[in-house]
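Session log. Operator J.P. requested a structure for one protein chain; no other inputs attached. Running the standard single-chain path with C-alpha cell output.
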Amino acid sequence: MDRDSFRFDHSPYERPNLHFRCGRAALWGVPCPRGPSASGACGGEVACFPVKRDSRWVCRRPDAQGGRCPEGPEPDGRCAHRMPPCQPQTTTRRKRGTLTLLAVLTIIGLIGATFHFDASAYPNLSSLNPGPLSGLHGRFTADQGCASCHAAHGRIGSWLTALASPSSQTELCSSCHQFSGPATAPHNFQAASALAQHQSAGPTQTACTMCHLEHHGDVPMLLRTGDGVCQTCHMKKFTAFGVDHPEFSAQFPYAIRTAVEFDHTAHFGAHFSERKTNGPAITCISCHRIDQASRVVPLAGFETCAACHGDDIVKRDLTVFTMPELSIDEFAAIDQGAIAGACGPRSADEDKAYKDAKGLIDSTDKKAKDDFQSISDQPLTPLGKLLTGAAKNDIADLDPKDPPAAALADLMRDLAKGGAAALGKAAEAKLGQGRAAALFAGLTPDLVRRAACAWSSNAEFKVDAPLGGGWYADGLSLKYRPAGHGDPVVRAWIDAALGSPADAASGANKAWLADLRAAVLDRKSGPGACVKCHAVSDPAATGTDEEKLAKAGPVLAVKWDDQIEAGSEYVNYTHLPHINLLGPAKGCDACHATNKDAHYPQAFDQVNPHHFESNFSPIRRAQCSECHAPARVRDDCMTCHEYHRNAGLKKIMMAQPNQG
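Structure written below.
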C-alpha cells in the first residue's frame, strides 16, 4: 500500500476524529478537498493559502487539486480560486459524544443530589465553593452572593440547558464595568476598520474570561499571567521588549505642537545663563510640578515666567477705537444738535475747539476753510473700519455722504447718546451677539460718552489709565490696559477676532476681520503679548497653511491651556515612579534631550499644530530597555499598555454598600 497517497496534500480523506463534516458532503455527497477546520469553520472558500517569499506571493494548491494554478495569487496575497463557503455539519460521532456526556453528567448530578454537603462544617469539601474571590469583588457580592455575577439555575433542566448554551458571563461583567466602546470588541474598538489597522489575527468577538480569572484570591487585576495572552492575537510578535519590540514612532512621544511656545534650547542656552551665577540654577522642576506628575508633568503656572515676561503684558495696550482725521465737510456732517442734546454744556477746551471749527465752516472765504485742521491725523483702527465699513484706513478724502463717512457721523451721535452700550451694540453687529459683556467688561458708560462728545467738538479727551489696568482715553483713542496675565478683556477680543461666526466673516466683513485679526495676533505689538507665547491653531488643520493667520476665513483658536498631547489611550505610562527612581534634579535629562538643531520656533508661525519640530529628540526603545529588561525592571506588555479603552465603573456598582 502506498502510504504517501494518504498524505494531507494528496488525499481528501476525512479524518473521523474531527467534530464536523463538510456541508457540501452532507448535501451532495461531494466534499471539498480541505474540509472544515477543527472549530467548524468552512475550509473550502479558497483552493490554497498563498505564502509570501521575498517580495512575491506563491500559490500552494496541493498536487491532488491540480498543483499550482497558472494565474497565481492576487496582488494582495489572496487566492485567485474562491467560492462561497458552506455550513459544516456536526458529525454523528460528535452528536453521540455530546449525548453520552450529558447522560454521564445527569447520573453524576442525580448521585450528588442524594448527598448533603455542609459548606460551613467542611469548607474544603464544599461542591458549591470554587475558591475565594478577589478582595474587590468580595466587597460587592457579600449581599447577593453568587447571584451577583452568575445566573442562577433552579432546576436540573436549567443546569443541562446552561451546559449546552454559550456563556453570557461578559454581559454580567458589563453590568458593573463600562468602557468607551463595545465590551466584546477587541480593545473595545468602535469599528472593524479600527481593528484592522492594528493588524490583529485574533477573534472579532471577545469575552472577559479570555483574560480574567476569578476565584483565585487576590490576584492582581484577575489577569492571566504572561505576554502569551497578548501575542495570541497580535500578528507582530516579539520575544522580549528590548530585543524585537517594534521601534517607537519617529517623533515619539511628541505627537503635536505644544500649546505654549517655550524654546528650551534658547532659554537654557542663553536666557538662563545669567541666573547660573547670580541666582539659583533653573532646572526642569523650576517650571514643572513633579508632585502632580502622571501621564504628563503639568506646568506650575505663569508665576514661573512672570519675573521675565510680566512687564511685557501690561505694556501691550489694546486700542479699540481711534478718532480718525476728518475733512471740514465730514466734520460739518456730524449732527451737532443731537450731540449737544446728549452731551450738555461743553468744557472750555471743547467749546473753543468747536467754535473755531464752526467759524471756518460758516465762512464764505474758501481759503479760510482750507485752514481747517482736524484734531486727529490718525487712521481708523481695525474695529473702526469694521464699524464704519471703510475700505481703507483714511477717510478724510471721502464725500460726507459716502457710507463710511456717514457711518462715522452716526457712530459719534450714537456713542454720545448711548455711551458704552451703543459701542457694544455696534461691535456685536459685526462680531456676533452676546460678546459685548466680555469685550467691554469694566468700561463705564460715561467714559465713552464723554470721549464722543469731545471728538465731535474737534477736541481731545484724556483720562489716565487706572492703576492695575483698565479702560482709559489718551486724547484720540479709547484703550484698554491689561491687568496682567490671563486678562479676560484682552482674551475676549482675541477670541472674537479668531472665532467670529461664518456670517460675520462673509462678504465685505472678511477684509475688515482680517485687519482686526492681524492687529490682535501681532507678536510684536499685539495686546497683552498673548500670542508671543500662546499658539494660534486651526482646529481642522491637516496640512500646512502659513497664510491662514492673515485670512478671516476659517475659525482659528488660541491654545490658552498648557495641556500636553495625551497620546494613545492604550498606553499607561506615568512619570512619577521614574522621577522617584532617577531623582527630580537630573532624571528628566535621562530621557528628554533637547534637540539644538530643531526649527522649533518656526512651528508657531503657522496654524497647523501637526506641522512642527519638537524641542526634544525623540525617545527610542533602547532608552527604555536600559532598565526594562529581564532580571531588571518588569518589561511585560501590561507594564506600558492598557487593553481596555477608558475602563470605568458604572454608578450602580459604586452605590453598593461595603459589605466586606
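Operator note: Residues 92-113 form the longest helix (22 residues).
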